[in-house]
Specification:
214 residues, alpha/beta, 5-stranded parallel β-sheet, two-stranded antiparallel ribbon, 7 helices, 15% strand, globular
């Protein structure tokens, strides 16, 4: 017997940057997402509001500045997801993550993602763009070079293939989140091997065990 206006809007999208990057990598996409779908569809690049959560995956390309670990960055991601939910009055979010951002997102889902009121996962869908799920041969090479120079770049070390293998042994729980991946394949060779890749991440590493892929 009561009539009420209800506003329904798409889930907010949390955009997670990768290695040697920051929120500005996503800056052009905020308007693209909004204008291509709906002005109620909002994107939240992690770090745009640093007081709400700020990841540190290194400075400029090949920087040897100190970085956070995946563990530390996934905690910052959690803070930003909560901010997006509060801002949009949303129970659920989607995540689009580039490169290392996919590993950070997987770690967050496995370790920190809380239950929500309707029993469905807080993160409805994780879309990974060129994420080195099985590590990167280039990270093997770069980490060796950095260690030779006496530099400790934790974010690069964690992208080594052996470290990624250990990561995959313990970060296994998707908690009902849908995983999708897009792998880049324009190049036939890379740092240590002959394999289709995007310049840093081999296609097999990106695809990993994710059935929804292209």
């Amino acid at each position: 017997e009561m009539t009420k206006n209800v506003k329904v809007a798409p889930k907010p999208v949390v955009l997670v940057h990768g290695l040697w990057s920051n929120w500005k990598a996503w800056e052009p996409w905020q308007n693209i997402l909004t204008t291509s779908h709906s002005y109620d569809w909002k994107a939240f690049p992690v770090g745009e509001r640093p007081e709400k959560g700020l990841m540190n995956t290194g400075g400029s390309f090949l920087s040897t500045d100190k970085t956070n670990s995946i563990f530390e960055n996934s905690q910052q991601l959690g803070k930003y997801i909560r901010y997006a939910q509060e801002d949009r009055n949303a129970w659920h979010v989607d995540i689009v993550a580039h490169s290392m951002g996919g590993l950070i997102s997987r770690h967050y889902i496995h370790n920190f993602m809380p239950p929500v009121q309707d029993g469905r996962p807080q993160v409805a869908h994780l879309v990974m763009l060129g994420t080195p799920n099985m590590g990167s041969p280039c990270a093997d090479v770069m980490n060796t070079a950095f260690e030779f120079l006496g530099k400790d770049v934790e974010a690069v070390r964690q992208l080594r293939q052996d470290v990624a293998a250990d990561f995959n042994k313990v970060v296994t729980n998707r908690k009902g989140v849908k995983f999708s991946v897009l792998a880049g394949d324009p190049l036939p060779t890379m740092c240590k091997t002959i394999v289709q890749n995007d310049g840093v991440v081999p296609v097999p590493s990106a695809l990993w065990q994710i059935k929804d892929n292209a």
